Amino acid sequence: MKAFDFLSRFLTGDTRAERRDAAPVEPILPFFTDMHVGTHQAENLSTVLACVNAISGSIAALDTYVYRRDPAGRTEAPSHPAARLLRRPNDRQTGPDWMEWTLASVLLHGNAVSVIEWDGAGRPASLTPIPWPCVGITRLPSGRLRYDVMTWDGKPRSYFPEDIFHLRDRSDDGVIGRSRISRAREVLAGARALQDYSLSMWRNQAVPSGVITLLDSKSRPDPATMAAVKAEFKSRMSGPRNAREVMFLGGGMQWQGMSLSPEDAEALDSRKYSVAELCRIYGVPPPIVQDYSNNTFTNAAQASLWFAQNTLMPWVRKIEAEFARSIFGQGSPFELVIDMSSLMRGDYASRWQSYGIAVQNSILTVDEIREQEGYNPRKEGADATV
Predict the structure, then answer these.
(1) What would the pLDDT profile of 64-120 be if each residue is shown by its tens digit?
(2) One Pfam family, short name please (predicted)?
């Protein structure tokens, strides 16, 4: 089958050519919807772009570990294939690149899909990201799901869930995640309308900064005189070098300044409120996206902690759970842990105060604390206090 034919089926949602069973199959979602266009329009809003970058970039910067659990506790397994996969998921991306792509895709499209390639021993060898518009999901008569994808080499392929890493936003059917852009279309439409209005106002405005009027409304100068006045005024008063120059008008002329209308000024001011609305969609505190209009020095640190606990942690748990399903498999003693301790430590003084309490109550050792802070283990014979 030609790649062009498969792509046309992606665009139309036609899955008939890929059916493997005589019985009809049920397509879960058309391969391509208008949401692909909507995501590009949404990212033109700086607040949406900042929210997506803040969440995806923050999680991509966190350290990831693979642990093996047993009755005695858990031990790190740095040589596990999944640990190597997290450092280099494929030939084109590093671990942070893949993590950032995955989070950005799920935040914009509601879904992020990567194909899992296995080696001859059944170990995960690579994670290849697939853009969501190039993915179609079909429910087979047996009840199983089939992922039909257009891979990077332009070839159509089909996979079953055990070969797919699928991170999804909140779903309405348990299969397809629904993007927040589609859930809050009117909010984004309002923000876009305000942005488009502001751009149009500056691009197409025909409002001068002022006008020159004649004190004697009955007398009107000839066109040549008007052209000469206009040229002289422009040469002497316009441009940065002539800013704040003193202006003298003769011949019964008077200068009258003009400003923005109250309606236009109100429309521009309304854009500030759209920032808070868009932040609510993604659960990001406004200070995280550089909106400090209602910020103080005392609540900036609290906003960062709130961001880590209420925005990042749910996504971290989803990623860990999806790794447990797709990479490790049911019943595996291994698990993925994304370390968020660096975001939960708080300020410098309170962090070390809490460490002191942890040592006094035998919750942590000095070496464990030094490891968290990035120091080498203490030397033999050193004082065992923090």
Answers:
(1) 999 998 887 889 999 999 999 999 999 999 999 999 999 999 999 999 999 999 998
(2) Phage_portal
Q: How far apart are CA 346 and CA 304, in angstroms?
A: 9
Answer left, alpha or beta for residue 346, where phi above 0 means left and psi between -120 and 50 means alpha: left
CB 112: neighbour CB atoms within 10 A?
A: 27
- In 243-354, beta strands by DSSP E: 253-257, 334-339
Domain ranges, residue 216: 208-259
The overall average pLDDT reported for the chain is: 78
Whole-structure pTM value: 0.71
Unique residue bearing structure tokens 């087979």:
140
Say yes or no to pLDDT of 343 above 50: yes
Q: Is residue 235 part of a domain?
A: yes
**Who contacts 233 (Cβ-Cβ below 8 Å, separation ≥6)?**
212
Nearest to 52 by CA among 106, 131, 122, 116: 106
Please report whether residue 203 resides in a domain: no
d(CA 127, CA 84): 11
How many angstroms separate the Cα of 11 from the Cα of each of 25, 166, 195, 293?
A: 18, 21, 30, 43
Distance, CA of 137 to CA of 113 (rounded, Å): 11
Q: In whole angstroms, what separates CA 31 from the centre of its chain?
A: 23
Are the beta carbons of 90 and 102 closer than 8 angstroms?
A: no
Mark residue 183 as left, alpha or beta (left: phi above 0; alpha: psi -120 to 50; beta: remaining): alpha
213 in any annotated domain: yes
Which residues on adjacent β-strands are paired with residue 255?
212
Q: In the prediction, which pLDDT does 83 show?
A: 93
Q: What was the pLDDT predicted at 167?
A: 97
Phi, psi of 8 (to 5 degrees): -65, -30
